[in-house]
Design brief:
homodimer, 423 residues, alpha/beta, Aspartate Aminotransferase, domain 1, Aspartate Aminotransferase, domain 2, 2 domains, eight-stranded mixed beta sheet, 14% strand, globular
């Protein structure tokens, strides 16, 4: 199907055939959800040993009784787990509660109102401040900015990561740019892994940005590979040390898609100065994180080999789902101009671009046929996709059989919406 | 020992005798800590069944898989646990993570920056805002205000709770008073339980305060009785309903001193309007709380009877410690003018008032004899006790034998500092 070369008669014939196909799909009364990056039940079961894993021993390796109050930075073995996931030095890691989103919100909030390096460094002193948002990106990053009143400006995502020419030019032109959102490995939603050159250039932004500028390096999919020889992400902490820009990057990760998403451990890795500023503010909000759950996680995943084994089990469950989605897309659109998509080597999403102006219509059609997709526009700040083309597919929750059905609906909806947009 | 009637000669003799006694106490090289309200190891053990209590069943009563993401308000059975502790309706309760301090910080922060009832209700719109702080009180309440730039004004604590004549007069005189800190039962540190009249009057503050005013009702010791027929705190939610002021109170509690302090569940109870505003902001900071740990707690403490049994076991451990401290105080100061203190019927603290100007000296002397006390002044905003007289004693962590030693040091330090202040 090549719409650009189609005659009006052809378009009308296609529309009629697709509408009829769509109607019969509707009659299946499906109820499928491809909206969020959630592990499936099968994946959750991989970590069921967590509850009870302590076998009555509530002592951390250094003798800390994890049941009681205290320990703002988390216990050492949990910080080591974070270091193993992010491949950073353990003394740069803080282990927190169950949500890296909370850590990101707190980092932005503390930097905005209190300053990470003293009150004089608070972003609010600058008046209106701006974050650069590579698009398409992660909707919950945007809601953090929106909630805190931080302006968002978009930058295109390329196959190598954010368009660094644009990022550098914008930062040079505007001293009120205080942040850059990054999902550097298996980017949400495009699946891109930042190239070495991109990481090197990001590590040098601290030289041209205002001193309060921070890269929010959300390494959510650091170990979430779907292939045997996965792409390696350059070590940004090491790159920053080389360039003397250690304070310009805050790294985030969690066990959310490694163990139990709702009940995991989140991590912040940062320079000594940033950790000092962060914990000074954090200490006014809590006595400390859930160290019992941190110890459980350290027992379940004591070293990098254990993490690798766990992630291999996840991959074995997830891979057929990704394969199913990609097969349907290949078959339906491999020889057409109706869409473009990535073939991610890890992560949780497949990003699909329709022809301009069709994404909302596709999501609506799919919903009306019982297939829930992430709202079109969600991958852009303020929910505004200027081209109305990006759709994020999250294939992990449904079974492969369900995905077969969902993808039949999806491809039919893309075709129908695309044809109708030409009529 | 009555200092007011002592001659200079007597004072000098006392000083010499006490200094010698103090020196011999110093030679014991003690290392005891009476600083924080932490459960003892023996108390922690009461909840060791938590880890493993789910026995592989990660389903909440309504079928929710607690392992996965979601559920911002917490699972129903955890909310019921909060309702049982606070004796409120379950539909007014949100169950969160491990820290009620975090909930209080968030409530203050959300109210300040975002507004609990829409952006127009944000405290920041008023310019500088003020919290009333009954003193002596809880230092971590003050650090929340200090961190957020909220001004604090003190109100005296009476045996019936905050001095309500003053509270009402101040609120009538200042529309920028947006908050009142309360620990209504076994108040930190005085142990006072607010009288019915006080609660009734607090419930009516919403009629005279600005619409954005909120009582922060930190019911940290709701079930932490040390006697068989404990005093009953009037139900403030019911009182507010009667007076049509439901939006004026936010109630907080947690399982921190019921199960494992670092790994418990915290609760917010609030009106529908307040919960709506709170969760709207909360949803930008997290996908949801640790529901697995919530389910563990619901299993351990399924009803009010289970809570009562658990708290009786705590009381059996704590009571001898409180008795030891009180015996020492009675024996040393029962017939003197050197200090005043409360005999709390529950909670975690004994509050001791020295003669004016002696508290800092006592804490310093005790520290130099190996007994760590909460810094003098910590029970006042900005750490400033204008009379320099209040000392908070936290007797739960040391053993009774250790408390015997610590209290010997304490009374000697009080006597020595008091005498020296007259020389």
């Amino acid at each position: 199907m090549q719409l650009d070369q189609a005659t009006p008669v052809q378009l009308r014939e296609w529309e009629a055939a697709l509408a009829s196909e769509y109607q019969s799909l509707q009659q299946q009364s499906l109820n499928l959800d491809l909206t969020r990056g959630k592990p499936s039940t099968q994946q959750l079961t991989l970590s069921d040993a967590l509850d009870g894993i302590l076998a009555g021993n509530y002592k951390a390796a250094d003798g800390t009784d994890v049941r009681n109050y205290g320990g703002l930075n988390g216990i050492l073995e949990a910080r080591q787990l974070g270091a193993n996931i992010m491949q950073v030095e353990v003394d740069t890691v803080l282990a927190a509660g169950n949500s890296s989103l909370t850590l990101m919100f707190q980092a932005a909030q503390f930097a905005l109102h209190f300053g990470l390096q003293g009150a004089a460094s608070a972003w609010k002193n600058k008046g209106e401040v701006t974050f650069l948002c590579p698009v398409p990106g992660y909707d919950r990053h945007y809601t953090v900015c929106e909630q805190l009143g931080i302006k968002m400006v978009t930058v295109p995502m390329l196959a190598s990561g954010p368009d660094m020419d644009k990022v550098e030019a914008m930062i040079k032109a505007d001293a009120n740019i205080v942040g850059l959102w990054c999902v550097p490995k298996y980017s949400n939603p495009t699946g891109v892994v930042y190239s070495d050159e991109t990481v090197e250039r990001i590590a040098q932004l601290g030289k041209i940005a205002c001193p309060e500028f921070r890269v929010f390096w959300d390494n959510a999919y650091a170990v979430h590979d779907l292939v045997d020889n996965p792409p390696q992400l350059l070590d940004i902490a090491a790159a920053c040390r080389k360039h003397g820009t250690e304070d310009s990057v805050l790294q985030f990760a969690s066990t959310s898609k490694i163990t139990h998403p709702g009940a995991g451990v989140a991590f912040l890795a940062a320079s000594a100065a940033n950790l000092k500023g962060f914990t000074a503010a954090l200490g006014t909000t809590t006595i400390g994180p859930d160290k019992v759950n941190q110890l459980r996680h350290a027992h379940l995943l004591p070293d990098s080999a254990a993490i690798r084994q766990q992630m291999d089990k996840h991959a074995a469950i997830i891979k057929p789902r990704f394969a199913c989605v990609l097969q349907h897309l290949d078959k339906a659109f491999g020889d057409s101009d109706l869409g473009n998509w990535e073939k991610p080597l890890g992560g949780y999403f497949i990003s699909f671009d329709t022809q301009p102006g069709c994404a909302k219509a596709v999501v609506k059609l799919a919903a009306e046929a019982g297939v829930k997709l992430t709202p079109a526009g969600a991958t852009f700040p303020y929910g505004q996709d200027p081209e109305d083309c990006n759709i994020r597919i999250a294939p992990t929750v449904p079974s492969v059989a369900e995905l077969e059905q969902a993808m039949q609906v999806f491809v039919t909806c893309v075709k129908l919406a695309s044809v109708r947009a030409r009529l």
